[in-house]
Amino acid sequence: MFTMLLFAAALHLPANCKPFAGLEKIADSSTRWVILGEQHGTAESPEAFATLVCWLSAQRGVAVALELPVKEQGAIDAYMISDGGSKARAALTSGTIWQSPVQDGRSSEAYVALLERLRELKRSGRQIRVLAISPEWKGSSNQRERDIAALLQANGSEQNVLVMALVGNVHARRATTVAGATFPTYLPAKSARTFDIAPEGGAQWACAMAPGSRTPTCGPRPLESDRLKMSAGVVLEDGASGFDGIVYLGKKSTASPPAVRKD
């Protein structure tokens, strides 16, 4: 607790940032990229991510990278300077990912709440910008990972700016498979940290293909976790798992439905 208080004092922490144990382990002055992996479709992971941004944006500028289509960038930019009202939200969620009949968790109510929290922080004076980093499909998953890495490197070159990305945990892990390497592999290891966000199981909004079906069915599904049950907080690891640490939520997750419901 004493360490957290010192960290809070150093960051001039505003009262509306929720406390989170071990925050000082997320980044230091040499860190340029922080990659956080989640299982899409929960309410709790984007909320925890917003808390981390709240803390770290008190120290320096933050470029928040979200796994949303790059073509949504204009709508996101407009929302970030809007009043956050119903018209602004309708414009934000008018894009394809929000209107698609297949909702994989990246277009959830929790993601709208995350964007609203980021908008509030920016309005309060924080140096925050939001980047949509999911490129158009070019027929190669490895090319997609390289494109994301290039985009993050371009935005991590600015002095006193930390890039914080929230992506699916398959992409957040440093790993090389038959399909190629994940994007954190292409970032300078000494300046990038990767974390897995770990709830204690629970539920998520996800899509699955039923046997014999050509269309995925989306809805609340059990979220399995093989992580140890731990109190909420950040724990560092040796990187052998592909992650530098775990962000334990200390509770079960709940499914976050689409921001735009089609039923």
Descriptive account of the structure:
The chain has 263 residues and is of the alpha/beta class. It has one domain (29-248): Rossmann fold (3-Layer(aba) Sandwich), CATH 3.40.50. The protein is built from eight helices and eleven strands. The longest helix has 15 residues, at 109-123. The model is unreliable at 1-11 (pLDDT under 50).
Question: Quick gist of this model?
Answer:
The protein is of the alpha/beta class.
Pairing-aware structural class of the strands and helices?
alpha/beta
What fraction of the residues are assigned to beta strands by DSSP?
Answer: 15-25%
Number of strands: 11
Radius of gyration: 18 Å
| Order of strands across the main sheet | 3-2-4-1-7-11-10
- Give the second-level CATH assignment, the architecture: 3-Layer(aba) Sandwich
Based on CA inertia axes, which overall geometry fits? globular
Named CATH topology: Rossmann fold
Q: Order of helices and strands, N to C?
A: HEHEHHHHEHEHEEEEEEE
* SS summary, helix count: 8
Distance between the termini: 46 Å
Major sheet characteristics: 7 strands, mixed
List the helices and strands and how they pair.
Elements: H1 2-11, E1 33-38, H2 44-56, E2 61-69, H3 73-80, H4 86-92, H5 96-99, H6 109-123, E3 128-134, H7 141-155, E4 161-168, H8 169-172, E5 176-177, E6 180-181, E7 192-198, E8 202-208, E9 217-223, E10 233-236, E11 245-248
Parallel strand pairs: 1-4, 1-7, 2-3, 2-4, 7-11
Antiparallel strand pairs: 5-6, 8-9, 10-11
Helix pairs in contact: 2-6, 3-4
